[in-house]
Design a protein that fits this description.
The chain is α+β, with helices and mostly antiparallel strands. The chain is 40% helix and 22% strand. The chain has a four-stranded antiparallel beta sheet.
């Protein structure tokens, strides 16, 4: 629910914190989590597409405000999106907000990537549980097989590391969810069957994201 001006002390506390943040866009608003009264979201409506985005998830107490789960979404990144890219990513992340009977118990949540990772081909991370460990698997959303082939040619170092999920106009929410569960489930099976470990996969992620061909890095710098 939207927080009103005459709300309680916690709401005023988080509002004061938000007003002190220089990178929040004009027009943001504060909403409270109905089931967790000390948790809030800062939302913002995209000026072109007219869609609400949750920019930050917050937890507040009498003295502190903390950002939850690396939830900060960069407004500059949202404004740069093309209509097709915006629509595709919005469709994907909206679909994964819903848990159904088909959602694997080992699936935890989806996290958006930051600006730099987005520029080098990582849209986000799918967090999963493997026994008593958690693992964040990077993924990229593509709308066609042609786009997938171009991505593989551009980032050969991402093979078997960054998982590709196809989302097009015909993809239903359930299809999107199952496609993601399928590709990240493949990584999980490699670990549970012993052909890979959580630690070795984390090393693969670090090495593949650190290695960027010179052209890719120069392109990223020009876009900044």
């Amino acid at each position: 629910m939207t927080v009103d001006e005459d709300d309680d002390f916690l709401a005023r506390n988080v509002k004061m914190w938000a007003l002190s943040q220089s990178d929040l866009p004009i027009g943001w608003r504060l909403t409270r989590n109905v089931t967790s009264p000390n948790c809030y979201k800062i939302k913002w409506k995209h000026p072109v597409f007219g869609v609400d985005f949750s920019l930050l998830s917050l937890r507040v107490n009498d003295e502190t405000v903390s950002i939850l789960d690396d939830s900060r979404v960069r407004v500059e990144e949202l404004l740069r999106m093309s209509p097709d890219g915006f629509s595709r990513e919005l469709k994907f992340f909206n679909a994964l907000e819903t848990r159904t009977e088909q959602t694997p118990r080992w699936f935890v949540k989806i996290l958006r990537s930051g600006s730099f990772l987005d520029k080098i081909g990582v849209d986000g991370f799918a967090q999963i549980c493997i026994r008593d460990e958690k693992l964040k698997i990077p993924f990229q959303i593509k709308s066609s097989r042609t786009g997938t082939r171009k991505f593989i040619a551009k980032y050969p170092q991402y093979k078997d590391v960054v998982q590709l999920v196809r989302v097009d106009d015909r993809s239903t929410d359930e299809v999107i969810r199952q496609r993601l569960y399928s590709v990240i489930g493949t990584v999980r099976r490699r670990i549970t069957t012993g052909s890979l470990t959580v630690q070795s996969f984390k090393i693969l992620i670090t090495e593949s994201l650190q290695y960027q061909p010179k052209k890719t890095l120069e392109s990223s710098k020009r876009e900044e």
